[in-house]
Amino acid sequence: MPQYDLPLPELERYRPERHEPADFDAFWSRTLAETAAHPLAAVFTEVDAGFTELVTEDVVFAGFGGHPIRGWMLRPRHAEGPLPAVVTYIGYGGGRGHLAEWTALPSAGFAHFVMDLRGQGAGHRRADTVDPGVGGPHFGGFLTLGIESPEGYYYRRVFADAVRAVEAVQGHPAVDPARVVISGGSQGGAIALAAAALTPGAVPVTPVGVIVDVPFLSDVRRAVRLVDTAPYSELVSWLGVQIDPERQERAFSTIDYFDGVNLAARGTMPASFAVALLDDICPPSTVYGAYNSYAGEKTMTVYPFNGHANGGAARIAEHIAFARSLT
């Protein structure tokens, strides 16, 4: 498809209006305190995936509400000393998938933790974690699940899970807790932005950097007016049925607690972003909305002729280089 959003020079200057709730920080402090009240209880169990040069582990830890969250941990078998680590969050509809999908980073010398997503896994990668918090009317997937209240919204649970995942990784005996990078693309990029904002003070050591590729859930009020593709189409469909303006605004007001623009303003660790100018799922201007709001040192990789998959394998090489530069 042709470029449909703002020209690149305008994207580089674009800074959206922020709709930030007055109790934004208090809401997240309360959420993380409630989550931390449950023992982390992280358990790493080695499984045989057939990789002679890698140690592969099935992971369970307590996320939001004390709910069991699963993950994978992979690391080089013969590496000495505490390892740098990368924590990865997954795109919409996916989960931790299969171990064979995650061999690149441990092959480069990193411990790699992949967090499962509660209730997802019917899209592009399987998940093995249920969501006991599911409730209330919603359309299709997860974007509108619990959308009329920030306390009950789906992403409150997921973002809290993401913080606990970093804590679990930092407690692994093979990991150097002072050399952890967080990463994600699309929905995973939204989760990574949240983790960058919320982990300082909530985990033993603040992560040293974050990778944010084509983030979802950023500048949402603009996104739903630019694209009709999933997942934003789920919110458009919900708004089209719930036509009461007050109810519509209540939904947007809920999302404001989770919007990447507001979370980016609280991220201070070094960040590597990526945007694709033909992306019709996460519009380029919404990606730049998060990028230009990000408070820390940052760089942007631009893919002028790519869609939502952005740089693909070439971007993975950039992930490795960025993580190495920090660890």
TrEMBL record:
Please give the InterPro entries that the UniProt record associates with this protein: AB_hydrolase_fold, AXE1_dom, CE7
Q: What Pfam families does the annotation carry?
A: AXE1
In this protein, which residues make up the domain named Acetyl xylan esterase? 1-323
State the name under which the record lists this protein: Cephalosporin-C deacetylase
